[in-house]
Design a protein that fits this description.
The complex is a heterodimer of chains A (280) and B (325). Chain A is mainly α and 280 residues long. Chain A is built from 11 helices and 2 strands; from the N terminus they run H-H-H-E-E-H-H-H-H-H-H-H-H. Chain A has one domain. Helices cover 72% and strands 2% of the residues of chain A. The chains are: A mainly alpha (280), B alpha/beta (325). Chain B: This is ABC transporter.
Amino acid sequence: MSRTVPPAAGRSATEEALDRPFGRLYSRNARAVISRGLMATRSSNWLVMLSGFFEPVLFLVSMGVGLGAIVGTVEGPGGGEISYAAYIAPALLAVSAMNGAVYDSTWNVFFKMHFAKLYQGMLYTSLGPLDVALGEIFLALLRGMLYATGFTAVMGVMGLITSPWALLMVPASVLIAFGFASMGMGITSFLKTFQQMDWINFILLPMFLFSATFYPLSVYPEPIQWFIQAMPLWHGVELLRQISVGTFTAATPLHVGYYLAMTAVGMLLTTLRLRQLFLK
Amino acid sequence: MHNEAILPAGTRAGSPPPRGTVIAAENLTKRYGDVVAVDGISFTVPAGESFGLLGPNGAGKSTTMKMIGGVTGRTSGSLNIMGLDPDSSGPEVRAHLGVVPQQDNLDEELRVRDNLIVYGRYFGLPMSYLRPKADELLEFAQLTDKAKSKVDALSGGMKRRLTIARSLINEPHILLLDEPTTGLDPQARHVLWDRLFRLKEQGVTLILTTHYMDEAEQLCDRLIVVDKGRIMAEGSPARLIREHSTREVVELRFGSERNATIGAELDGIGERLEVLPDRVLIYADDGEGALEQVASRGLRPLTSLVRRSSLEDVFLRLTGRSLVD
């Protein structure tokens, strides 16, 4: 690319922007995207927000209390006996962290990208694509944290919390949501039609049902166990289940590491894709 | 209407208005794969000018606008916006720009006034500046009584005015308008033109694309006629008409059957003849005189009209095609 523009006297804004990491992509103003999101929420869909909170609670009541009456107690992570409701509650929390983050970073982003043209408007301002990505992901995480706090409170009320460690489920849920949100946004950037968006549900539903959510991994033959363990949700389920009773093993840092890696890869993918999509 | 002091001096968020050249494009080229959208165009725009890009759909106007805004990179050539290269310092360049895209992309989840405030936040502007500024711009856009309305309750013209008001939130030196009045009814267009004219009076540099001749003639000091990514002609509307067309035009309709064969029978009348599928145009400095000659040859058109030459005729002359199909 030829640059025949005469250099301005002294250091130009261009040079400074190039000096900064991601100068072209990031203007250190993700908070503007965040405050926009909060304003939009204030005026809109409280019902959708509430449904996201109630979904895992309804599952917990139906499966935990209803089915739990037949199942009785099961073996928890530390080997101790816990009620079936206490066994599935952390798993449902992980599922809700996943669903919330994925919804926010896929359907929401898809709509804003292709229909509301919201990002096009934002990128005609001083904002860069990374400001937009960080802002949107932060909002997804904020929502995830509210849900997680609410659900943990419900667990407390139902007497399913037996260890103070359980409070750590809230930040751990945010980490799980971070992994899914950053990956989800990156993947969404490749999708062009509603039909393609349906693939996301096609992946999420089996992951929800089979990631040792309602019964231990040991029920599967070994090859399937390996497959499940490669999927992200299983790590979330295990992590929160361990935290809920305060039993940690050598696998705990592995679960955390899985999500850190997922977040890093997702953010990288999202940023590269936004650059391709909007700064072509 | 009583909103004269619209953008009072001294409250600008940016630096004082620039002097000299604000946009310089040299051999600007954009290729998408094998398709050349913009094919080596060069132009400069001095501060305060109202500069138009006139051409049919697909001429490369919007692509040029996007390159100026730094949201589309160029394939080759150079581009300088107020001393900055939009490719490498997009955010800084856009801080000086106001952008009115072809399709309104207002934030439907926010109310009218919040649209302005939130947009200002994207530029990193403080609330203490934005609150009075938003009210001032609502006044300018004649939307004060709609401040708390939802965006989708606005009419097409109101949405367009809100989009323009939004683009002014950072007090840009350069306003990019991509087809600003496409899809609006005549009355809404005139209201909009009036607003744009006021901005021009305040020294804002306007860059606008349009395929409406009347719009170009109303708003542009100078324009380039673009077709297939190339500049076909450049100048003020009046000069372009003078150079590329006659003073007047006679439009004749003989019905679609007859139009094709009538050319030979009209030969010699006026300076030039243009046979279109639906009508025949005779270019002549004296339109009435030409019309009399048509009648004296015993030809009876279904309708006839004598009018002044417009940029439409310039475009037709330069490219052999109409602007609006």
